[in-house]
Amino acid sequence: MVLTRRAYREKMEVSRWLPNELLVQIIQHFSKAEQATLCRICKLFRDLCLPVLYRDVKIKNTQSVHSFCAGVIENPSRADTVRSLVLDLPYNPYTRIRRKLILTSLKLMLRLTHLSISPCVLDNRHGGRCALLEECSLPRLISCDITVPRWGVLDSPLQNSTADLVAVFLARHPTLKHVRIQVDSYDSGSCRMVTSPSIRVSLPNLECYEGDAVFMPAIDAMDLKEVRLVWPSKDEDIEKIVTRISPMTNPDVSFICSHVYWGDRSLDQIMTAVSTHMPHPRTLRLRCFGTFPFSTLNHNTIRRITECLPKFTKLVHLAIHHGRDYYAASRGNKDKDRVAVKRWGESCPTLEACFLNYYAWRKVGGRWEEYSIEEFWILAGLPDLTAYY
Amino acid sequence: MVLLVTSDNEQFQTEKDIVERSVLIKNMLEDVGESDQPIPLPNVSSSVLKKVTQPSTGPTEIDVRGRYLSTASTTVESPSRPPILEQSQDETRKRTTDISEWDQKFITVDQEMLFEIILAANYLDIKSLLCRRWLQDGSQHDQGARPPEEIRKLFNIVNDFTPEEEAQIKKENEWAEDR
């Protein structure tokens, strides 16, 4: 501690007496606004803060996006430090988004590994091209999250073209490991991201796909470890799509399979298709999105699940939630759920833990005991309990 | 209990749970196994170790992966909150939702001690002590850092920007003010 005593005697100039790497560690804990302030203290702090400030960028308003992009274009060296860019802009009919500015700055970010764009950035309703999807090429992109504006999907003339543009964008990025494609719509069950039949997207590194299930057949992957599929409310292709996905997974590798669906009929179809054509997931999650908040599974559906479960070869965690509000005061019929879980455990010997509606159980010495939902979620490798997928 | 020996040869019997907040000590204990032998900490003085090993009464992280934090714990970032400089009673009162009583005691240290804690936290590898609030002001700038001129004054940092350069860097990074 001799060093700090000397520093104290010599009036404690922090930047001289704390090593740079330690200052950087401390800076990393600050918010973006605080990091921006620290950049203005002195040149040393600016040099230490700027790479941290620009590494992970998340912007939520249009004016800030324009300011950020203009700054990057003016100082291209800043673009090199950006690794993650999240443009989470709300829809505002009175604000004009300068999409060319965004595209120009994105083209400079050659080391970007994560890109997330909200629908406003892709909006081409007024006849403009969706240049970002058409032209952007990011050689190191590992993860992308694209929310497509619903008008691009619902308007029938654009239906294929928007999905195709997304597909072509993905095809330019074979480095991708994690892809999330969704439609910006509260009632996304009615939207379908269908690509033209000739479109094929080769993503040899893809490990996780999240989003619209009907978009998935356009992708060619080799070693999927996780799929989180949102099924449209009216679709007869569940079996066809599951059959298409199955060869992209490796039965010897732990696989997580999540489904969001819109009613008991879809649940029947999903259980039948997955148990028949892709029976090797370690974790299976089924979430109904078209029911009343506190509704529970009906007797026939429970029976149907029981019939399908023996076909699963490696199923360890099963999560089924029918109600929407996990923290509701009214939490369904626990005893009835326990009976269902017990029956499922008998049907599927590999099953070790189960979440149903509002409670989690695990098998201990042959008996099903209630346990922590949070622990279940972690062990099952699932995302946040309240996450859409 | 674990026996720690500081640079000024003072010995401390400390609970294992507490000392294991230090990755360095945790690794040492794992390597050595169960032992009565004291662990020497040649880079940490007794006064600093007392601060560093004070048990926190504050909330702890629920989940190491940052998931499932309930609404009540959304402000929790680490088992113990980091030090900031001494605050007046009024200033402190304004932050009571954010800083526990233990944290308030912990952070009322002079600059020399603050620097020693930061260096010790780095040596002992205690991430939670290497956190952010050491430059924060709890009064007018509740959600942000002190203004640059205050930080410069506090730590005797010379402003080597020209006014134009400073204005330029402020303008370039305005996007970061977006919350």
Automatic annotation (TrEMBL), chain A:
F-box domain ranges (all copies): 18-58
SUPFAM superfamilies: F-box domain
InterPro entries with a match to the protein in the record: F-box-like_dom_sf, F-box_dom, LRR_dom_sf
Top-level taxon of origin: Eukaryota
Name the UniProt record assigns to this protein: F-box domain-containing protein
Organism: Mycena sanguinolenta
Lineage per the UniProt record: Eukaryota, Fungi, Dikarya, Basidiomycota, Agaricomycotina
UniProtKB/TrEMBL annotation, chain B:
Annotated ranges, domain SKP1 component dimerisation: 146-176
Pathway: Protein modification; protein ubiquitination
Highest taxon of the lineage: Eukaryota
Region (Disordered): 72-96
SMART domains: Skp1 (SM00512)
Pfam families assigned: Skp1 (PF01466), Skp1_POZ (PF03931)
Gene3D superfamilies on file: Potassium Channel Kv1.1, Chain A
Alphabetical keyword list: Ubl conjugation pathway
Domain SKP1 component POZ: 1-52
BP-aspect Gene Ontology terms: protein ubiquitination; ubiquitin-dependent protein catabolic process
Protein role: Essential component of the SCF (SKP1-CUL1-F-box protein) E3 ubiquitin ligase complexes, which mediate the ubiquitination and subsequent proteasomal degradation of target proteins.
Oligomer status and interactors: Component of the SCF (SKP1-CUL1-F-box protein) E3 ubiquitin ligase complexes.
Family: Belongs to the SKP1 family.
Name this protein carries in UniProt: E3 ubiquitin ligase complex SCF subunit
Gene source species: Mycena sanguinolenta
